[in-house]
Amino acid sequence: MRKCAAHRTKIEYGSAPSQFGHVYYPVDGVGPDAVVRPVVLVHGGYWTTEFGLTIETAIARLCAERGAVVWNVEYRRVGEPGGGWPTTGRDVVAAIRALDGTVPAALPAEINQRVDWGSVAVVGHSAGGQLAVWSVSQLRARTDTCAITTVIAQSAALDLEAGADRPSIRGLMGRPADEIGHRYRDASPLCQEPFDAHVIALHAEDDIAIPVESSRRYVDAVTARGQSAELIVVPGEGHDAFVDPRSASTRQTVRLLGL
Asked: Using one digit for the tens of pLDDT, what is the confidence trace for 145-171?
């Protein structure tokens, strides 16, 4: 696909400082018969303020240059007012719901009328993968005007119960699992009921932060309950490859998005 220039604009989906996102869209190269894919990006970074949505800037711009409308979202994280569970998750749900009005309103009419709002993809990396899958499950893969058809969970934290001893997960949840085990289950993608979207657990083979066995375990568990899901392993790369626009992991993501 021919690359084109991309435009970025900041919009808010709530009143808190971190309830905003960046919308990217192509400014040329979209023909009159083109169908534009909407993509939601949910960044990772241990659910903490150590990382923000800018770690996905290069990926967002890459996808927009290839003809997508990209909604790269921020959310309240551990270390700021309102951050932690469940408000962090609820922020991502609210950000996805912004596809019903706030995000389309930020697009030029000639782009908006070509967006396929019935085929939204939600992509989340690491901690953002947990938020992506969990949020889509809460929405049952639909907003008022959109259908989510694909979730790509990139080297994602998909089993919070199994990882309950990790400082990042305990920090998100606020208390140890032996005190609030039900909340860990409620937040864990592996424990969600099936929803009407296809989940692709896309994992870097050499990931030492979240081993590939985590995604394999997730796919085995949820497909047994009726969830449409598959595992794709990218050889020779590690956890951070998904935020590198030059990596094989990014090329695989772009291919899966049809861009």
From this structure: 999 999 999 999 999 999 999 999 999
